[in-house]
Structures are given as structure tokens and as C-alpha cells.
Amino acid sequence: MADRALVLGGGGFTGGAWEIGVLAGLADAGVDLTDADLVVGTSAGAIMGARVAAGTPLEELYEDQTTLRGDEPVLRVPPTVTLRFLWAMLLSRTPEATARRLGRMALAARTVPEEEALEAVGTLMPVREWPDRPLRLAAVDARTGEPAALHAGSGVDLLRAVAASCALPGVWPPIAVGGRRWIDGGVRSTTNADLARGHGRVVVLAPIPKGPGGVGAARHAAELRADGTEVALLTPDAAARRAFGRDALDPVRRAACARAGRAQAAAYAEAVAEVWHD
């Protein structure tokens, strides 16, 4: 097996900030996950994953999360979109069927133009070139519900690949890549940790352990362990969940979520070190 993989799940502004806080707190304790051989990102985790894989210093990432610049995208999930998510989950028997229903919704929804979505993602992710180390970004084909891992060999620029992984149905439009249109990888799984298959040691940060209709982080972790992989699965504690609040897309909450993640990391450090270190 290849060596170590870091998986960063989706979770909006709040979840992404928590992830950076956890990474910073683990580094404080002597466990640096930024030297992963592979980074897997979904939605907000795609933004953070791209920056981590590119070598952005953790303290710089942490400062970004604890500073409100004022140019963060304003995102709102209309009540009708929430209802359609729930409806798709109730009517679908499999995660693939849920993804297809949400893909149809995304293709029919009236949202912002694609270029506006790309610009918004660009304000959150100054990195523009694919990093030298492997980076896999989860997205879902809006028409078929088929999942994919976008990477440096996919023939797409990094910004567009990240935007595809972040394209929440009904909020942002599906993003065109390779003649197909793609939506948020989180509609299939909030972590897509199975994309780390083949690595011997995997750490999964899951701000949302299970999303509507998707495959839960615990299931992917169990599947990886069954393959012989050592896995550490990290989820928010009670203090972090309080910091998240009810709106994952509220940038004002980022600072509190980053601090909560950093504080929580101490409780994870020993278990993560056992997985990560030789």
C-alpha cells in the first residue's frame, strides 16, 4: 500500500474552519498532517485540501479562518432547496439515486452564472496551480449521479475542479468540466474517504459525519479498515457543534469554529499519532 492520506470532508464555512483548527491543533501537539502523500477534498474540504496540498503554512490558513475580510461570498440556502434535499433523500433508496435527483434539481435551478461561482471560489482559494503531490477532489456528474475524483490529470484547471466539488445544488450552478456538468461531491458522501483507498494510513476529518442521503464517514472508515488500512476518523465535539450553529454557510462563525477545532485537537493527538507515525 501507498503511505499516508489526509481526507478533508465538506461542511461549509464552519466545517472548513474547524478542519484548519484541528490541523493546527494537531501540529501544536507534534502531529503534522500536512505532509500527507495524498490529500482528498470534498466541497469546503476541496478548498482547504488544495491549499494544504500546495504547501500553504498552517498558521496562515488558521489566520485566514479567524479573520473576517469582508469579501467572503454571501451564500444562502433557500427553504425550497432544503425541502428538495429532504425530498430527494426520502424518495431515493441509494446514495446514487439521491445524487441523480439532486443533479436534476441543480440543472433546473436558477442560480448565479457559472463565472460568478468561479469568482466566488477564487476569493477563498488563492492557489491556482495543481500541487506537485496528489490531490483528489470529489464531484458528482449532475446528469448521471456518477461520482468522480478530479485531479491534475483530468484536463481541468484547479479552480474549476474545486468549484465543481463545491457546487451545492440550488445554490451554485453545476460546473462544466470535460463536456459534463458537475455538482458538489458531498451529495454522494460528506467525505468520499474511499478515494484514499490503497493508502496504508488515513486520517479523515469529517465536519458533517453524514449528510442527507449520502454515505456516512463511518461507513467509509470501516471499509478502509476492512482493506487493512489504519484509519483515524475525527468528528466535531459538543463545543465545536455549538460553534457551528445552524448555518454552515455563515462566514462570521469561522473564527469560533477554527478555535474550537484547535482546542479539540489535543484530545485526538495520541490516537492520530498512532495512525500517522511509523
Shape: globular
Supply Rg: 17 Å
Largest sheet descriptor? 8 strands, mixed
Helix-strand sequence: EHEHHHHHEEHEEEHEHH
- Unreliable stretches: none
How many E strands?
Answer: 8
Straight-line N-to-C gap: 14 Å
Question: Strand percentage, roughly?
Answer: 15-25%
Query: Number of DSSP helices?
Result: 10
> Which class do the helix and strand fractions yield?
alpha/beta
What is the averaged pLDDT score?
91
Relative helix content: 40-55%
State the gist of this model:
This protein is 44% helix and 15% strand.
Task: Please tell me about this protein's structure.
This protein has 278 residues and is an alpha/beta fold. 44% of the residues lie in helices and 15% in strands. It is built from ten helices and eight strands. Strands 1, 2, 3, 4, 5, 6, 7 and 8 form an eight-stranded mixed sheet that branches. Strand 1, helix 1 (12-28) and strand 2 form a beta-alpha-beta unit. Helix 4 runs antiparallel to helix 5 (95-108), helix 6 (114-124) packs across helix 7 (158-166) and helix 9 (238-244) packs antiparallel against helix 10 (254-276).
